[in-house]
């Protein structure tokens, strides 16, 4: 949320010697008069020059480049609202095809009638999945004559902030497994003590935001299967595959993380990450239609026909769904496999170059996900936040941050390698990082920190 500047009189002064407009334009209130489309475009265009270069943004997982044909499709479908299924029936057909393709990619069992929907990113997908599991838990408890208060969800501290949002917004206790200085993911042994009859689900991550690693999903699945067999507690495993859902199926197709694990009841993925479409799009898929309580699906008829809807949003863009369909047709399994292999190779090359730099060590070498994470071997000497700022002077956007609770003493640099990050850019980034580190050390040597003298009493 942003504070409203209702008392501000700041102005855009006229530019280009008044060729386009010759009057001041307020920044925080609606102008009294308009201007030409060309002038408005130029004003906004010039101001956005202050943004970073998306090609040099290694902080974000989000796709920043698509082919020209995709750009044309995006423009052509910009005005189509995905919710208007009666008005745009073929767009709805494309939506269904995309969700089915993703379900099959994640080995959804045909006999269980899997279901799913496109969403506005993985945040909405996760909230929809957890709402379904919460309601299913409530109905099971009601049928057994048990109280339905105080539900909880078990997650690691390595989760994205949207998991904390779900817990807070929808009044579910978040039982968080803290990290440790040398353990940045979770496994069955950390999860088991937190489970009880009020647990609606466990979150497992296929690629964490903080370090780009993977929870021990098979061990958690085995734990939940044993808990159901021995204690009669049905606790779904939800896989947050936002980052890894379009990497692992192509780079490690035999790795069991999806619906091939018996307790996995739902999966989300961010199509706008390695699905290679512009933001914002995610998808949620349920193992069986029974995992999504019918009461949560709204049937709408005031736009034309009966339109079942399960979403937090109502209106939402259709072009991201169309672009995902374009990519599926354009690339196929072979194309996605080639791209996954290329970004992983570039990430590993970057990691190899960076691990040889004195003062830095790898937390993640990019071998499973195209994410390279570094920490300082001497944190008291190497200030990663300052290193990040020095890289920004060269145009690179490389975030520095501390890890979550119990590992907050660890600071890291994280680099996400995407499709448009070439091997040449790998070389340039590693050279610039090495140069920035050397410059920082020279500055530290020139102006050494001197401890303050204790004042005389």
CATH architect. name of the largest domain: 3-Layer(aba) Sandwich
- The CATH topology of the largest domain is given as Aspartate Aminotransferase, domain 2
- Look at the structure and give the mean pLDDT: 92
Number of domains: 3
Spatial sequence of strands, sheet with the most strands = 3-9-8-7-6-4-5
> What is the rounded Rg?
25 Å
Gap between N and C termini = 49 Å
Helix content: 25-40%
Order of helices and strands: EEHHHEHEHEHEHEHEEEEHEEHEEH
Sheet having the most strands: 7 strands, mixed
Please tag this protein with its features.
Aspartate Aminotransferase, domain 2; Aspartate Aminotransferase, domain 1; seven-stranded mixed beta sheet; 11 helices; 36% helix
Tell me about this structure.
- This protein has three domains: 11-51, no CATH class; 71-327, 3-Layer(aba) Sandwich (Aspartate Aminotransferase, domain 2), CATH 3.40.640.10; 341-445, Aspartate Aminotransferase, domain 1 (Alpha-Beta Complex).
- Helices cover 36% and strands 15% of the residues.
- The protein has helices at 37-47, 68-76, 89-105, 121-143, 161-169, 188-191, 217-231, 248-251, 319-355, 384-393, 423-446; strands at 11-12, 25-26, 115-119, 152-156, 173-177, 199-205, 237-240, 264-270, 282-286, 298-300, 307-309, 360-365, 371-376, 400-402, 411-416.
- The strands form four sheets. A seven-stranded mixed β-sheet has the order 3-9-8-7-6-4-5, sandwiched between helices. A four-stranded antiparallel β-sheet has the order 12-13-15-14.
- The radius of gyration is 25 Å and the shape is globular.
């Amino acid at each position: 949320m942003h504070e409203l500047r209702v008392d501000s009189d700041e102005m855009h002064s006229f530019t280009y010697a008044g060729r386009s407009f010759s009057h001041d334009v307020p920044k925080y209130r609606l102008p009294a008069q308009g201007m030409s489309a060309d002038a408005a475009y130029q004003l906004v265009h010039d101001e956005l020059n202050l943004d970073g270069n998306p090609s040099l943004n290694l902080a974000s997982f989000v796709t920043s480049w698509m082919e020209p044909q995709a750009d044309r499709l995006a423009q052509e479908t910009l005005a189509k609202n995905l919710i208007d299924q009666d008005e745009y029936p073929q767009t709805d057909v494309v939506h269904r095809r995309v969700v089915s393709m993703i379900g099959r990619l994640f080995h959804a069992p045909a006999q269980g009638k899997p279901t799913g929907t496109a969403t506005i990113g993985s945040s909405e997908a996760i909230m929809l999945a957890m709402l379904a599991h919460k309601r299913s838990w409530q109905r099971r408890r009601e049928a057994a004559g048990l109280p339905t208060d105080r539900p909880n969800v078990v997650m690691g501290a390595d989760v994205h902030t949207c998991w904390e949002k779900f817990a807070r917004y929808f009044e579910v206790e978040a039982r968080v497994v803290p990290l440790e200085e040398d353990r940045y993911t979770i496994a069955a042994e950390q999860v088991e003590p937190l489970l009880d009859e009020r647990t609606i689900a466990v979150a497992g991550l296929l690629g964490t935001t903080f370090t780009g690693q993977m929870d021990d999903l098979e061990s958690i699945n085995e734990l939940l299967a044993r808990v159901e067999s021995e204690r009669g507690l049905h606790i779904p495993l939800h896989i947050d595959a936002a980052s890894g859902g379009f990497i692992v199926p192509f780079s490690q197709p035999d790795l069991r993380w999806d619906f091939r694990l018996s307790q996995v009841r739902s999966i989300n993925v961010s199509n706008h990450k390695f699905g290679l479409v512009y933001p914002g799009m995610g998808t949620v898929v349920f193992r069986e239609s029974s995992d999504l309580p019918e009461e949560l699906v709204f049937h709408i008829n005031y736009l034309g026909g009966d339109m079942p809807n399960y979403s937090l949003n109502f209106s939402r863009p259709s072009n991201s769904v169309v672009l995902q369909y374009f990519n599926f047709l354009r690339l196929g399994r072979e194309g996605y496999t080639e791209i996954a292999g290329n970004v992983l190779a570039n990430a590993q090359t970057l990691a190899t170059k960076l691990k040889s730099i004195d003062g830095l060590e790898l937390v993640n070498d990019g071998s499973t996900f195209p994410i390279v994470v570094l920490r300082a071997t001497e944190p008291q000497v190497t200030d990663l936040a300052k290193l990040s700022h020095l890289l920004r002077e060269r145009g690179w956007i490389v975030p520095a941050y501390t890890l979550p609770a119990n590992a907050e003493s660890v600071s890291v640099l994280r680099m996400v390698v995407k499709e448009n990050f070439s091997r040449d850019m790998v070389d340039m980034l590693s050279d610039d990082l090495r140069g920035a580190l050397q410059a920082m050390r020279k500055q530290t040597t020139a102006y050494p920190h001197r401890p303050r003298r204790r004042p005389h009493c």
